[in-house]
Amino acid sequence: PMAVQAQGSNVQIYGLLQPSIDFVDNGDESGTSMQNNNSRLGFKGSEDLGNGLKAVFQLESAVDIDNRSGSGFIRRDSWAGLSGSFGTIVAGFKFSAYKSSTDFVDPLGDTIGDYNNVFGVFTEGSDGFNDRFTNGLHYASPKFGGFQLTATYGLNNDGDGDSFEDDSGDGDDDSFSVAVKYAAGPLTLVAAYEDQEDRLAPLTNAKAMKIAGGYKFGSTTLGLMYAKEDFGSIAGNDIERDLVFASIKHSMGNIDLMASYTWADEFDDVDDSGANAWAVGAAYNFSKRTAIGAYYAMVDNDDNANFGFDAGYAPSAPGEEMKGFSVRLRHAF
Questions:
Q1: 149 by DSSP, 3-state: which?
Q2: Which residue of 5, 18, 115, 258 is most buried, as measured by CB atoms within 10 A?
Q3: Strand partners, 262
Q4: Is the Cα dihedral 163, 169, 172, 177 positive or negative?
Q5: pLDDT for 173-184, tens place per residue?
């Protein structure tokens, strides 16, 4: 990343460019497309205020390098705050503590095999538990013997930036999220919980919890996660389910091999609404900043399930099987 001096602050310019060419079959038709895979451009920095206190900030934009349209600025994590012996507290637009806490467990993140294809969403294209909190306050504690607490509080958090609940009391309520992480040597453990109240209208009172672990031995890393997601109810049906995710990554010199499996049980009151997902990938690292990879993913939907690829591909109809192959270039600066 590039660092420059601006008005006494240490400002860092950084980015991640991840274009891919995808070959996708959505159950009815197949085609070739290009995706940006969460490519981004950002600015972050800090100012030393003395006595161990710092002002910190970040402004991050999505970058649609696969077409001529822009995504606008501050479409990704953007915030300002203070950091010191108490930890870090910032205000702004940011992934929740719940969502961020288990990113480490998925070696196929930002690819066609991302675990967000099924995890955290109740149908393809929904935000679910993978979204950012608007009007958010975000806290990260110092690390104590390998433990760290993170928490997020969204003021009247409806996902659209509205700040106030209407007078009828039918508006969106506050949302909160908390995660505890333990990291020591090769072992990482996480427990997290999120309560979104009425944020996912017409679903109500969405809540989720998950526990996850990662262990690295030699050149191999294993990941395992369990979650219970309760999206509330709609039309009298309870939208609650259990999920299990497992992953493995093995490195051989400049080559990374990875695979993952997701099992999602059906929602309590919706028959045949579960899914299974598989993904495999191989990447060649030219350097720490540049890599090229090939990935294959499949989502096997039950008859009433409608899960697709988080990269932007939906099944042609509920129950259809999604299959895709992707070649992605990744360059960080």
A1: strand
A2: 115
A3: 245, 277
A4: positive
A5: 578 999 999 999
φ and ψ at residue 103, rounded to 5 degrees: -55, -35
Reading the block at residue 61, the tokens are 């934009």
Instruction: Answer for the pair 77, 96: CB distance below 8 angstroms, yes or no.
Output: no
Four-residue CA torsion sign, 285, 287, 291, 292: negative
Q: What is the SS3 assignment for 286?
A: coil
List the beta strands (DSSP E) in the chain: 2-6, 9-17, 20-25, 30-35, 40-50, 53-62, 78-84, 87-95, 132-140, 147-154, 175-184, 187-197, 206-217, 220-234, 237-252, 255-264, 275-285, 290-301, 322-332
Between CA 182 and CA 215 the distance in angstroms is 12
Structure confidence at residue 170 (pLDDT): 42
Residue type, 155: L
- The DSSP line for 56-85 is EEEEEEE--TTSS----SS-S-EEEEEEET
For residue range 20-56, list pLDDT tens digits in order: 999 999 988 899 999 999 999 999 999 999 999 999 9
Contact 142, 131 (CB under 8 A): no
What is the identity of the amino acid at 53?
A: L
Residue 63 pLDDT: 86
* Tokens standing for residue 118: 């099924």
